[in-house]
Amino acid sequence: MFRRKHHQRISEVLQRLDDQLLRDHACYFGGGTAVALMHDEYRESVDIDFLVSDLEHYRDLRELLRGPQGIAAITKSGRELVLAREIRTDQYGIRTAIKVGDAHIKFEIISEGRIEFDTPGKLDCIDNIATLTRVDLTASKLLANADRWNDDSVFSRDVLDLAMMKVSQKEFQAALAKARPAYGDSVLNSLSKSIDRVLTTEGLLERCMTTMRIDTPKAILWQNIEHLMGVAGVDSMGGGNE
Known about the structure:
Blueprint lengths: L4 H12 L2 H6 L2 E4 H8 L9 E5 L2 H12 L15 E8 L3 E8 L2 E9 L13 E2 L2 E2 L3 H15 L8 H9 L3 H15 L2 H15 L3 H8 L6 H15 L10
Parallel strand pairs: 2-5
Antiparallel strand pairs: 1-2, 3-4, 4-5, 6-7
Helix pairs in contact: 5-6, 5-7, 5-8, 6-10
């Protein structure tokens, strides 16, 4: 049982999904919510993101959800989900919102064409729903950080998620090898810049902690950021040490 009320609502949605169907379509739970739930709910995350890297599987899921069953096509028998808005689909993703109590939870299945996901292991799951592997979670977070590291509305969530994951150097290098073909050297450069921004912008970390309801002590966040710098081989001045 998760301790944060909104995470309990997310868990309720996950438990109603057809875990085997999603596995069969290589559709895996990822994003910041997966990271937060895996790491003692260090921050509050509000959305549910699934990712698919196989175009054929994404096409099949898109057709299922556009069909007469709608969201019931990916839920367990008798475990209904109530939509707060209609399902919308395009080449990039399948999007809707699910009503749980008085909350509306954004739900997306994203077509991730930049990297190919590995098959999750037995331990890669939350509420029996398969998640991205640690390497693939790291790779997807590196790409997200490269896209939006200097966006004030993001509150540095990608670099903080990466820090809280405390990946090994081997895991980081494997993730970097997956992310680099998509964005080249900007993956590592953007990571260095985002770390520098958190470390040097007065009050930024405190604002991030308040906005995302981070309850991990600031000293632990600093330690984890320093660990990330070490495994990534970057400093906090916008450049790498490689």
